[in-house]
Amino acid sequence: MKPQTFATIVALIPYVLGFPHLANFPEHRSLAGLSPEEVRAVASQFDSMPGAQPLPPPISDTSSILVNDADHPFIPDQPSDLRGPCPGLNTLAAHGYLPRQGVVTPGQIITAVQEGFNMGYHFASFLCYSAFITDGNHLTNLMSIGANTTTKGQPTTGIDTHGHFEGDASLTRDDAYLGNNFMFNQTLFNAFNESAAQVGNGMITFEAAALDRAIRINDSIARNPEFSFETPRFLGAIAETGFFFAMFVNNQTVDNEKPLSLNDAESFFGNHEFPQGFYRRQGPYEFPMVKNVTYTFVDMIGVKPGNNNGVNNYVVNPEDPMTFCYFYQKQVNLTASLYPNPTGALKQAIKANLQTYYETLGDPTCEQYFPYGQ
Ligand code: HEM
Ligand SMILES: *[C@@H]1O[C@H](CO)[C@@H](O)[C@H](O)[C@H]1NC(C)=O
Ligand SMILES: *[C@@H]1O[C@H](CO)[C@@H](O)[C@H](O)[C@H]1NC(C)=O
Ligand SMILES: *[C@@H]1O[C@H](CO)[C@@H](O)[C@H](O)[C@H]1NC(C)=O
Ligand SMILES: *[C@@H]1O[C@H](CO)[C@@H](O)[C@H](O)[C@H]1NC(C)=O
Ligand SMILES: *[C@@H]1O[C@H](CO)[C@@H](O)[C@H](O)[C@H]1NC(C)=O
Ligand SMILES: *[C@@H]1O[C@H](CO)[C@@H](O)[C@H](O)[C@H]1NC(C)=O
Ligand SMILES: *[C@@H]1O[C@H](CO)[C@@H](O)[C@H](O)[C@H]1NC(C)=O
């Protein structure tokens, strides 16, 4: 039999099983919301189903090295490339640190964010699994770094999926309620120019980054009646303000002392391109420092987690402890609600991935959740 004939027959299996809408299901699309029968129909189309995989080893050299090098040239996005709301992951894909098409394994993300940006191994693993468990495919161990495009006739949202990891008050992407939640928006980026001019002498300093963060939150409070800003989004949105400061600055020091230029910021946020001669930061950006920088911004901004109950009507949620333990628990509970009744290999893979996710926290004081039993 010719390979094409075989592929056609495989593609027809879901029709045979009575699920025509699931034909050509992309291998990186989340299986959330499918019944056990639908999961079986979809799984019959996958080339390979490795299930949950262990974390890759950490990289060994964490010094500052040239990362915009000859081995990793920038190639502008092709029509078939998936890109999303994360300027870090978009840049890694556009330079080939991640597969350029944007369909990746968690292991590839964890290695690439260390290689390209010196994000710390433990924090990188935590962040990656925070998105993978809700937005990835537990059977194929694949996910997409975004894009609300159609692949093989199916919508593929990946990490764009609003309310999972993606959320409101992004720095350069609109709220889902207001518009496109994953594409670069120049108008929103201009709040950086304003902040840099007001308090940073034209540069994105720590103070300018905090001001920009506050401007973007206030804009969502003023215009988005469905603005939602509780953990995990609350911590995520504020941590991300630390990310670009810690990792988009050429040869940044361990103490995050150097400011970011507007041109370099736009290169990452808008073009997904490393500036010329870009050296990754000196030393890994790891959990203790992430927490310190995040909570420093929390103090500077003065906003607490909460929700908009109508435009300009922000209601603080005093029950939200804004901790990384709580972040983990909210993502586990969301996963449990997305997969109320998994069976067989899918259940086994989700359980193993949740175990890995807990371990990435590296904090035995965080209570572990077992929505599918121990
Ligand atoms: C470890 C895996 C990572 C995952 C799964 C991830 C995922 C995401 C997601 C889903 C968002 C959208 C949040 C939102 O605005 O609603 C985001 C935003 C962001 N990410 Fe990543 N990210 C990762 C690593 C990185 C790295 C290494 C960097 C920087 C070097 C980075 C920098 C940012 C920044 C600055 C934003 C905010 C964008 C904006 O608000 O306009 N991320 N990320
Ligand atoms: C994303 O795709 C879904 C399904 O095709 C569509 O309903 C939604 O409006 C799209 N969202 C954006 C922001 O383009
Ligand atoms: C950018 O964001 C602004 C503010 O939400 C919005 O008015 C504008 O339409 C957006 N631009 C694009 C191209 O989506
Ligand atoms: C954001 O809004 C709060 C509450 O109205 C206000 O105190 C704060 O100054 C505003 N921040 C900015 C940067 O506009
Ligand atoms: C990076 O910064 C360190 C000191 O902060 C300096 O010694 C080194 O020369 C810099 N490297 C490059 C390539 O700029
Ligand atoms: C803000 O800065 C960026 C990068 O330098 C530039 O492209 C953009 O035009 C500036 N926007 C305004 C309103 O000056
Ligand atoms: C961050 O670390 C500095 C220096 O160790 C310390 O002075 C500061 O209190 C810490 N801030 C937070 C919010 O943890
Ligand atoms: C998660 O779900 C469990 C079980 O339903 C519940 O006891 C717990 O309070 C939830 N935790 C969070 C942080 O939502």
Automatic annotation (TrEMBL):
Pfam family, one: Peroxidase_2
Cofactor: heme b
Iron among keywords: yes
Residue intervals of the Heme haloperoxidase family profile domain: 70-302
MF GO annotations: metal ion binding; peroxidase activity
Signal peptide range: 1-18
Domain of life of the organism encoding this protein: Eukaryota
Keywords: Heme, Iron, Metal-binding, Oxidoreductase, Peroxidase, Signal
Protein family membership: Belongs to the chloroperoxidase family.
Protein's name according to its UniProt entry: Chloroperoxidase
Species classification: Eukaryota, Fungi, Dikarya, Basidiomycota, Agaricomycotina
